[in-house]
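Subject: mismatched residue count in predicted assembly?

I count 223 residues in my input, but I want to confirm that the predicted structure covers every chain. Input:
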Amino acid sequence: EPEVTQTPSHQVTQMGQEVILRCVPISNHLYFYWYRQILGQKVEFLVSFYNNEISEKSEIFDDQFSVERPDGSNFTLKIRSTKLEDSAMYFCASKGGRRDEQFFGPGTRLTVL
Amino acid sequence: QKEVEQNSGPLSVPEGAIASLNCTYSDRGSQSFFWYRQYSGKSPELIMSIYSNGDKEDGRFTAQLNKASQYVSLLIRDSQPSDSATYLCAVKNYGQNFVFGPGTRLSVLP
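Triage response: the counts match. Full output below for your records.
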């Protein structure tokens, strides 16, 4: 069964460093998302991406964040200058064209020291 | 502010019993509703989606939607210890993103 994959599973970085989180969505899906979940808190929407552009973003997704689909398979989230409060699980999700169900990858645990 | 509310639990049920999980949402324009299961340290796993009023059954799971009351629920029949997890209610509004509730922690006791 096709699934969303994410790398790395765990990323440790120093405050102020740039990180890139990678996702490979399900191959025939058209909509891609990033969510984050701070430990013990809700899953929060960051950004959605369709047709090679951002379709929606939340207040969390400020100028420090960017997304890219550099080729036909990968979908990346870049955080330019990480802060302590960026420590969280980051989930990539994807959705096909017809139905609204989103399927989540296993997540990347980001730890900012 | 679009909100999705759930009792945080924990909800404890004995093995074999019915677990009932509830969710309310604030945006009357919400269109699609989802239940995800999340084991500790893992990602959300889609269990059910429901789009119209009434009941939808899939195996041991039944989702119920009442748009007039802005209420969606999940029933788990014949609960098993492996069902012990946090259950997340997610709501899609007019946009593409989901709004998640805080989750209800379910504990099924052997």
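The first strand of chain B starts at residue 4 and ends at 5. Marking this ticket as 'not a bug'.
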